[in-house]
Design goal:
- By secondary structure, this protein is of the alpha/beta class.
- It has two domains: 169 residues, HAD superfamily/HAD-like (Rossmann fold), CATH 3.40.50; 107 residues, Calcium-transporting ATPase, cytoplasmic domain N (3-Layer(aba) Sandwich).
- It contains eleven helices and 13 strands.
- A seven-stranded mixed β-sheet has the order 1-13-12-11-2-9-10, with helices on both faces. A six-stranded antiparallel β-sheet has the order 3-8-7-6-5-4.
- Helix 7 links the parallel strand 9 and strand 10.
- Helix 1 runs antiparallel to helix 11, helix 2 packs across helix 11 and helix 3 crosses helix 4.
- It is elongated and about 70 Å long.
- 46% of the residues are buried.
- Bound molecules: adenosine-5'-diphosphate and magnesium ion.
- The site of adenosine-5'-diphosphate has 23 residues, from helix 4, strand 5, strand 6 and strand 7.
Amino acid sequence: SIPLSFFAGIGGASKEGVLVKGSNYLEALSQTKYVVFDKTGTMTQGVFEVIGIHHNKEEEKKILEYAALTESYSSHPISVSLKKAYGKEVDTGRVSDVQEISGNGVTARVDGVLTAVGNAKLMESIGVEYKVCHHLGTVVHIALDGQYAGHILISDRLKPHAKESIEALKRAGIKKTVMLTGDMKKVADQVAGELGISEVYSELLPGDKVEKVEKLLGEKGEKEKLAFVGDGINDAPVLSRADIGIAMGALGSDAAIEAADIVLMDDDPLKIAKAIKISQKCIRIVY
Ligand code: ADP
Ligand code: MG
């Protein structure tokens, strides 16, 4: 039978906006020593703003239009920002052959032109030479008919409680915090530095994130648990692989909420430490 205090614990967590899908996760949470984070949408708001457009010969507006149309069907935070900066309804009748390459970007045909919108790896995969951008921010490269057309520089912001959430985890007895991201090294290092996360791995594909989590699972103590926290865009596999998968409920994808063991209804990372504290208290009552 399930001790009564577990119900109290689950109830207490839900009052904080933390949905725990079973009493076993509450127990696991109390043993958590490693917390691994995704970056975009988890520690950052996942709301990018276009801060610059650098183009070859096409005009600025044209580049943004190709990018927004290529991204018609994507729900990635980068895609959302490009469509917002474009400002007009995307006419999907102009778009065909769309292919979203998880962790890399999107290719399509827009007005008959072959488009590729994404990171350096995407450009390399289609054999397009790209310009290295020295500004701080996430770079979205654009190629048209196999020719480099320029890049759009976008920037995200930390969530209001991001830094506080790492400090609270340390106080709750978490030994190690790690950030995993598909974004570029310079952006990842800057964000991790600002938050006080000591271990950071960048430029990862969704499969690489699973591999890193497996390595960390092997490294931690036998009775210790590892939690992965993500917004779920591209990270449902890693949410399932961790001892405890924690997903963002508001911005996160349905697939992530499905794959997760715990859901943060308001996307606030500070709630992770709160949930751990509740779990520790309720375990103390049980044993
Ligand atoms: P994170 O690990 O930070 O949550 P993702 O794994 O979702 O990031 O994406 C990794 C990288 O792949 C992004 O930083 C971006 O460069 C590229 N990317 C992914 N999806 C898209 C998209 N729809 N449009 C443009 N670039 C994308
Ligand atoms: Mg993400």
